[in-house]
Amino acid sequence: MAATDAVRTDDPTRRAPAPLAADPAVLRAFLDGPHAAVRDEVRDALVEHAALLDERLDLPRAELRRRVRDLVVEIGSSGRAAHGFPREYGGGGDIGASIASFETLAYGDLSVLVKSGVQFGLFGGAVLQLGTRRHHERYLPDVLTGRLLGCFAMTETGHGSNVQALGTTATYDPDTDELVIRTPDDASRKDYIGNAAEDGELAVVFAQLEVGGEGHGVHAVLVPIRRDGEVLPGVRVEDCGAKLGLEGVDNGRLWFDDVRVPRENLLDRFATIDPDGTYRSSIENPNRRFFTMLGTLVQGRVSVGGGAVAASKVAQEIAVRYALRRRQFEAGAGSEETLLLDYGMHQRRLLPLLARTYALSCAQQEVARRLHEVFSHDTPEADDRARRALESRAAGTKALTTWHASEAIQECREACGGAGYLAANRFAALKADTDVFTTFEGDNHVLLQLVAKGLLTDYSSDFEDLDQFGMVRFVTGLAVDTLVERTAAHQLLERIRDVLPGGRDSWDTEAGILDPDYQLAMLRFREEHQIAGVARRLKAGVGAGTPAGEVFSAVQDHVIAAARSHVERLVLEAFVERVRAEPPSPSRDVLAALCDLHALATIEADRGWFLEHGRLSAPRSKAITREVSALLRRLRPVALELVEAFGIPSEVLGARDLVGP
Amino acid sequence: MAATDAVRTDDPTRRAPAPLAADPAVLRAFLDGPHAAVRDEVRDALVEHAALLDERLDLPRAELRRRVRDLVVEIGSSGRAAHGFPREYGGGGDIGASIASFETLAYGDLSVLVKSGVQFGLFGGAVLQLGTRRHHERYLPDVLTGRLLGCFAMTETGHGSNVQALGTTATYDPDTDELVIRTPDDASRKDYIGNAAEDGELAVVFAQLEVGGEGHGVHAVLVPIRRDGEVLPGVRVEDCGAKLGLEGVDNGRLWFDDVRVPRENLLDRFATIDPDGTYRSSIENPNRRFFTMLGTLVQGRVSVGGGAVAASKVAQEIAVRYALRRRQFEAGAGSEETLLLDYGMHQRRLLPLLARTYALSCAQQEVARRLHEVFSHDTPEADDRARRALESRAAGTKALTTWHASEAIQECREACGGAGYLAANRFAALKADTDVFTTFEGDNHVLLQLVAKGLLTDYSSDFEDLDQFGMVRFVTGLAVDTLVERTAAHQLLERIRDVLPGGRDSWDTEAGILDPDYQLAMLRFREEHQIAGVARRLKAGVGAGTPAGEVFSAVQDHVIAAARSHVERLVLEAFVERVRAEPPSPSRDVLAALCDLHALATIEADRGWFLEHGRLSAPRSKAITREVSALLRRLRPVALELVEAFGIPSEVLGARDLVGP
């Protein structure tokens, strides 16, 4: 074979496409989306506090925590944390703006970001979403101005992803009309809780509610844990100590030794205890109630995803600017050394990451838009299907964005060599601080299983509701019929083929590689094929009487692959749609090329699958690789504009050693 | 397609292979290799100093550095650093033992490892390899007992990988019979130099040697930089400050302002200045001289590779033990929750990494064995080809092991969820400290280019010699004929086919998937095909008159892929050979299964390429994926023994939260 292959043509002028020219302002407007003004406000604030980025390098942990706390309080008092809260409590009533603000904050120190997220997003969000008017009136004004710092005490040492199995109990005592909060064992201590070690005064504690001897599942209760800096009686606090990153956040553990709070401290939007001690909920089914409660907290995942994309942008701008300054090894005797970004491999390392970053930015904006829509026209029971689809999209996008951040930051750090290892050049903090994003607000693999479950049930099943994980239980309870209908997925493929150039049979060999409809059809085909395959395998396993646990274990990687393929399709779709909506301009051509690069690099990365399933021929697969290389060369001249468009103030970008003065 | 695919069979008893049973002692002997006793000594020492692993979490940088320095000095005074040095200076004369010792040290704190490496490996190694008897006698006894701490001052801010272009000068002054060391500009300051910021007293400085107005290229000179803790006149030192990791190592920058040292301070094994001021070298060609000097320092790369594998073992043992304790989500109503490692996806995440770790351990032992052989029967000019092949193998193995370490540690950290993020559980340090391994002792991409160049020239070219990078120069100087011969690579493929079951045409469709000869032939085919392809593309580009820089840039990713494929083949070969040499036993069956898993996972990861190049059919490709899944289920019951075999003392493993008491 080796001797007969045609020599590959590497002539960059093969198709002689017009050189690209980009206007960073147009690209920036594209990325900033509808909340550019909010983002600019945050940019200004970041510049004001940029000194922390350098100073933190030599601050002891205790002092760093203080600095970070002060900044979070100042974010609150400036009103910048209030965008997403109702106007009547001093908020802005604009959820989209609050996501945009949070995302932009991620250009700066990530301890500040995460501590803000804990305070205003998780803690404030829980009070808002799970509480009722009396909680809102009493707490929200203080929460969102940073006067009352709090915790979101959900995770326990023994149970992270499986929230339904938490061990902490909240038992109603009719004699005193109080709830008694108890940590029955060390596995049930609250763990990794932000704001718990030092600053939090009030905690939203998730616990198994028992009323009149009957368990009603996990509910949220407000429990004071500190007053004037002193831990309250019955509460035990332990500092989680040194962490891999986010050292400015005071994570801690909490134990409750029969701590009593008034009945009114139950956050009772979805279930309440009447004055006569009767438990009452508008949602009959306990699972459904639980997942409805959790579902209201979806903004946390959307925020983490957005923060991850933003943090990856900081790394990429540094690496691209470095690659446009740093020369190494002369091209010929006596000539000047070559810029790193003029090396083909360096382009391969950095530019597809940039393309993916643009794609994920579009996907993230789409999630934020839907979040805004669903939560702005609010009754939680209203459109269950839309809510579940949103939760699924948020979960999947969070998984892909956070993995992307880890990967991109690592690649950029390596692309900056030894200098990338110095803490002053930002990568140390970027790597360490974002590392936990892949596991917090839901472990990414668990989240993708949630996505898969939604796909398998078309968001309409009610037998187990949207469990965070529970795929094994799901398989156990599997009604074979539920999946049969879904297996009709192949009908969708027929439709795809019909609309594509070349008709039903040859769409994939005749369509232009650079046709977004072809690219999307490829990703759709993969997604549908994989979901149908998972459905068949689950069905076959359950039908054969194999224990559910075994069936699921054997199919699990397929389940996760299917979910990932689904989200990849959503991401490309979001990018394609945004580019199509853009008015014609040279910058739009840049975006189109970037979108092609993202689409083809995504197909290329999984070309083994497409070849196995007859959707790529060997020559076409090789053609895609050549096209990716051609796109890299085309985009190389606009690399600087692509990162300038992030709009990261240079004071915040830092890394002077790498990016220059 | 979706509806007509056969349902995949996931029945684990499909081939009913015998259950595996492993004896950790046998596996440990396999991994420890010929220097088990040396490794055990280091294990004992690590237990003695295990407290540092916890204490370091809260130590300020200055104090951590002191602790680390004291430990390095104690390693020296205990004689444990002397294995590789000649007996006449207090050493053990056993290079293999010194590698084994260094590797095992990597189970502990990695600042101690790296600072030891700087002191005994780089600094001591340079004095030994580049110096002559007078340097050995005067310095080695103090160096290898840790009484004289020193630096290896090669890298400059402006030049990392391209050492030949260093800016520091060493000018011979015949009037005073001295060498004058000068840093001409800030780009030429020595940067990231271990031991420079605080502890080093003597530095091996790499500088452009000028004698009588003539430049002779880079040479190494001994330059005192401190006495009794005080920086000497003419030397300027700056602390590199906070780093991503390895905070116990005092990296610094050095400037020399016409610092004068006696002529005898030139490390003059390969070139000397006579008393009359004449430059004289046994190696005429300056390039060849330079690369011969550098080549003697190959042990550094071998050490880093070994350290990376060992560090990844710590992460994997923690993650596997955690996955065998942690239960999450019950399999059915009321049943116990499922162990993480019983989830198929969790097996997919961890077990192929383990298999690869065993493979890389074998590859690493093979490099160490060859290093020992070449350097124990020593005349540097003797067998150039063997030396170059060793350098290439060391470079390639270092690239693969260090990337593997980054990947494995990251995956293991994620597989331990939130608890993995706490510094007490080891991952923080493992991640941060090993991160630089991918770029130090040579950036991995640059190293793979060195490998590719060796392959293209069959280690026999002398026109540019073994440059560390310089592929562009290489292409510029390309004699088309040089490559033609190499393009005969396909003849090798013919030979491979001849020896394989099924004969020339069908070997790849009829051979058993679990036949190591088949697996190796697949990797050999890929390697040869890619090297031949690179040769043809370079030839075509140069032949067409395209500027060398452009030709190289376009082919660079292909070059790196070819080099990687070569090293992958060496790795599998080393594993297969070691397993074949093992006497029959149940543990050998475990190793054989692990070797199959590694081989098939490697092929699976690049199945796109094999499908594109007609070496896999779609059904066979899918069969490989099924076989990988079957191997995961087979190996699951011996997972604990596979990590016990690393022989990491539990005090050193730490991470009690994760692995239990």
From TrEMBL, chains A, B:
Record-annotated membrane-spanning stretches: none
Domain Acyl-CoA oxidase/dehydrogenase middle: start-end pairs: 151-259
Domain called Acyl-CoA dehydrogenase/oxidase N-terminal: residue spans: 35-146
Acyl-CoA oxidase C-alpha1 domain mapped to chain residues: 295-456
Cited InterPro entries: ACOX_C_alpha1, Acyl-CoA_Oxase/DH_mid-dom, Acyl-CoA_Oxase/DH_mid-dom_sf, Acyl-CoA_oxidase, Acyl-CoA_oxidase_C, AcylCo_DH-like_C, AcylCoA_DH/ox_N, AcylCoA_DH/ox_N_sf
Domain of life: Bacteria
Entry keywords, A to Z: FAD, Flavoprotein, Oxidoreductase
The keyword tRNA-binding is annotated on this UniProt entry: no
Essential cofactor(s): FAD
Every Acyl-CoA oxidase C-terminal domain range: 516-655
PANTHER family: ACYL-COENZYME A OXIDASE (PTHR10909:SF382), ELECTRON TRANSPORT OXIDOREDUCTASE (PTHR10909)
Family membership: Belongs to the acyl-CoA oxidase family.
Name of this protein: Acyl-CoA dehydrogenase family protein
